[in-house]
Amino acid sequence: MLDLTFDAPKPKVIAGAKHDWELVIGMEVHAQVASKAKLFSGASTQFGAEPNSNVSFVDAAMPGMLPVINEFCVEQAVRTGLGLKAEINLVSAFDRKNYFYPDLPQGYQISQLYHPIVGEGEVIVDMEPGIARRVRIERIHIEQDAGKSIHDMDPAMSFVDLNRTGVALMEIVSRPDIRGPEEAAAYVAKLRQILRYLGTCDGNMQNGNLRADVNVSVCRPGQYEKYQETQDFSHLGTRCEIKNMNSMRFIQMAIDYEARRQIGILEAGGSIDQETRLYDPDKNETRSMRSKEEAHDYRYFPCPDLLPLEIEQAWVDDIAANLPELPDEKKARFVSDFGLSEYDAGVLTAETANAGYFEEVVAGCGDGKLAANWVINELFGRLKKEDHEITESPVSPAQLAGIIALIKKGDISGKIAKDLFEIVYTEGGDPAEIVEARGMKQVTDTGAIEKAVDEIIAANPAQVEKAQQNPKLAGWFVGQVMKATGGKANPAAVNQIVTAKLGL
Length: 504
What we know:
Layout (H helix, E strand, L loop, with lengths): L12 E3 L4 E13 L38 H13 L7 E2 L2 E4 L9 E4 L9 E8 L2 E14 L3 E3 L8 E3 L6 E7 L6 H18 L11 E10 L3 H8 L9 E6 L2 H20 L7 E6 L4 E7 L9 E2 L6 E2 L2 H9 L5 H12 L3 H7 L3 H14 L2 H18 L11 H13 L4 H14 L3 H7 L8 H14 L1 H9 L4 H11 L6 H11 L3
Parallel strand pairs: 12-13
Antiparallel strand pairs: 1-2, 2-10, 2-11, 3-16, 4-5, 4-15, 6-7, 7-10, 8-9, 11-12, 13-14
Helix pairs in contact: 2-4, 6-7, 7-9, 8-9, 8-10, 10-11, 13-15, 13-16, 15-16
């Protein structure tokens, strides 16, 4: 089914003072699992609750409290892995990642370093029609989120909100396959789209439900190809990690700044320190946070409170059998079944709600191309102008299908259809009934059109003479007939009759 072929985009090249440089980017995306309860406790995950109101004894690390795994969170991670065409590990295990921070009351985070639940997969990142990047997924592991430190409520004190502590995260780790800032943003957008289709993460970046750590390095042209041949990272430059990015625009700006910073250091004869950095959007710069930790810095060890997680293949197969149709498959089907361009299919499949709406319209009118044209140009255009989502559309799929059906039947012209759309959008109602009640039906009676043409020809002999010398001027007569019939005459019929009467 999925037969859309593509070529890889060219890597972004940045001209330094001395040399050209290429970008190499890998990403770790933290996606909050769409679950009502936390990973190891029954506390709520509701966003925006009063500080420290969604905290159980387990989350607060009270003595003697033991974690109990939330099966639904595990299922969501498996669904995500299957959606990314990744291998599912039937045995995985949890580790303790030890570090001190005020918003981490346990003094460690329960994560999966050595035995993640999901292995290697891939994401196809569309850049433009026919151009896409295949980004390999290295692993997905489940872990707890930390709480939140608040520093702007008091000049002398910081506050801690533990509502987020223990919320389930999926950390989706890519290989360093991304080669430019635009690709990085497109990768996050595509990942977000897939997660939303699967229903495993709502992708809300404003709330921090989806955020990315971006690993950036630069290398000379030709070095990346050597890395691909050997998988030896020594061919690539030293990477720096930019933490907690939750905006597509800022991801691009941060990568661009960081790449130029590294190039400046290398061309001055310096070397890059592997470290974690923060991006400041106000100053458009990255700042050093800390040197990059290795696993031993965190003193990882198997979590003694949790047994290895064992799942059955039959359970995984059952989840796989109930996966929804994913964006790439849906897009390919829209292209092959409805004859849409890849671009239009991409617009219609961007969100599940968009695709669902479009398919209902097609089911009602039986014309994919016409439906796509009306959904994208008229409906989406109008909704965007008024800052509405498709779920808030005043025009239902059945109503839009009704308008398109009237065009196909020849009852209304494209121009009348736009007027009808406006009425349905603002007032509602059944399109066919509105056309009938308001006398909007197209005049297809050739006798009536002929009469109107004869009258206009008789009244304008000078114009007739000009048109016979220059056939392009026949359009004037068509316009006059349309005017005389209140725009209701069938334009094709008018054209035909005018041409015949003028002997052109």
